[in-house]
Write a structure and sequence with these properties.
Length: 464
């Protein structure tokens, strides 16, 4: 006879499939976090944007801006969510790393890996295939360009994290549980726009997904409250921006370059750049997801995959809304843009592109061979990971960061003000060699008697 202890053990023992649904996301979280933060304390890219934003996060919450970071085209993003998140990272993760900026990079990387784990669970549940889900997440998380930026304190990366999280919640059908879940999903999607304006296309797809199923069923009693919840969330998140505008005056718009480009097309001053927009998007997908083997041809594959996905998943409008709609909206949106189109503009769209490619391609496989084909696809994605990691390590970093930290620690231990901290090696123009020293408690005094020099090997010398 089975003992009571054996009976209790059998009750708590998870079935094999259920165990894998816990183990696999946990493994993805750990492994991607390691890949993103490997030796970050040696080569963290501490440039102008990172110094500015981490410096803001080191202050009290009440001193945070009411809007987002300044953009390279003028203006600023439309809300402070990026600084809220960065400040929270500094509060939770920063003390473990003496509040040095690479601690912020580690916190950001952990959030990114969390979004990967959530996307894996969502795709697994949505498609019923762990192999399809794992293939998509591995391709996304190990894309060299994305991987190299994932632990760099930078608002486009945080926008990508939030956009990926909102997409995953939709695919997980989390928003169906209650109106509050819908509101939280909408808040995450709009916070992505706060962090980076280019995430607006993903946010539109998420908003459409939150409403489309009720709309298709013509269940207006369900759709209208959801629409009101989305509108209320967006309005609430824009209150800080409105306060900022009221305090700073009407002469400081957030994204003047964007509205100027749209106005230029509407008034006929600028052409509608449809072909340029399409070419830039295809190049971005190829550069971000297919390097170092990108040679072209991605556009046609992506187009065919999108058509196949529309046919196969036409009865799943929420899936279509977070895959096809953001890409189509981006093609149209950037056709209105008068400036140059950089690859990083499209970071938040990569989950939509990769899921479209994988689901589109797998629709061509006969049902009898589906399992074998998806396992082979996943094995192929795994096989190229080492090469992608090696390529990511060649992308721009700041190898002098470790030397700056080591030297600054030595100088700070003296507890003496310094006139300046001078590295005896070249740094990028926007890098401030005194930033780390000041975080560690050092004080720069232009009237001080001593100045310090840091050699390339980390040794410090002092000069009067």
């Amino acid at each position: 006879m089975e003992s009571i202890a054996d009976q209790n053990a059998s009750r708590v023992r998870l079935p094999t499939a259920a165990r894998w649904r816990v183990v696999l996301p946990a493994a993805i979280f750990v492994l991607t976090a390691i890949a993103r933060t490997w030796h970050i304390n040696r080569h963290f890219a501490m440039l102008g944007d990172q110094i500015r934003d981490w410096g803001i996060a080191l202050g009290p919450f009440t001193s945070l801006p009411l809007v987002g970071p300044a953009t390279h085209v003028g203006g600023y993003t439309i809300g402070p969510a990026f600084y809220w998140i960065l400040w929270s990272i500094r509060l939770v993760v920063g003390p473990w790393f003496d509040n040095l900026p690479h601690g912020g990079g580690i916190g950001q990387a952990l959030l990114y890996s969390g979004s990967d784990a959530l996307l894996l669970m969502a795709l697994w549940r949505r498609t019923g295939s762990p192999w399809v889900a794992l293939t998509a997440v591995v391709l996304l998380a190990t894309a060299p360009f994305d991987l190299a930026l994932s632990a760099v304190i930078w608002n486009p990366v945080v926008g990508s994290i939030l956009a990926r999280t909102a997409t995953a919640l939709v695919l997980f059908e989390w928003h169906r549980r209650s109106l509050a879940h819908t509101a939280v999903t909408a808040a995450i999607a709009w916070s992505a726009v706060h962090a980076y304006t280019g995430a607006i296309f993903v946010a539109l797809g998420v908003f459409a997904a939150l409403l489309v199923e009720e709309g298709v069923r013509r269940n207006w009693r369900g759709a209208i409250p959801r629409a009101c919840a989305i509108a209320a969330i967006v309005a609430s998140l824009q209150l800080p921006y409105l306060i900022h505008r009221a305090a700073s005056g009407v002469g400081q718009p957030a994204m003047g370059a964007v509205t100027g480009s749209i106005a230029g097309v509407a008034r006929g001053r600028n052409p509608l750049r449809v072909m340029e927009s399409g070419a830039a998007y295809v190049h971005a997908v190829g550069f971000i997801e297919f390097n170092p083997w990108y040679t072209g041809g991605v556009g046609w594959i992506l187009l065919v995959s999108a058509v196949l996905l529309l046919i196969r998943y036409r009865h799943d409008p929420a899936l279509v809304a977070v895959t096809i709609l953001p890409q189509a909206a981006a093609l149209g949106g950037y056709a209105l843009w008068a400036g140059d189109l950089q690859d990083y503009y499209y970071l938040s769209l990569m989950p939509a592109a990769v899921v479209t490619l994988i689901l589109g391609i797998t629709t061509l496989v006969p049902r009898r061979a589906a399992r074998v084909a998806t396992v082979a696809l996943c094995a192929g994605a795994m096989a190229i990971v080492p090469a992608r990691l090696r390529f990511a390590s060649t992308l721009p970093r700041l190898p002098e960061y470790e030397v700056l930290v080591s030297g600054s620690r030595q100088i700070a231990r003296l507890r003496q003000p310094m006139r300046s901290i001078e590295p005896q090696f070249m740094l990028p123009p926007t890098c401030d060699p005194q930033f780390i020293f000041k975080i560690l408690g050092g004080r720069i005094d232009r009237q001080a008697e001593w100045r310090a020099q840091i050699a390339r090997d980390g040794r410090v010398s002092y000069l009067r």
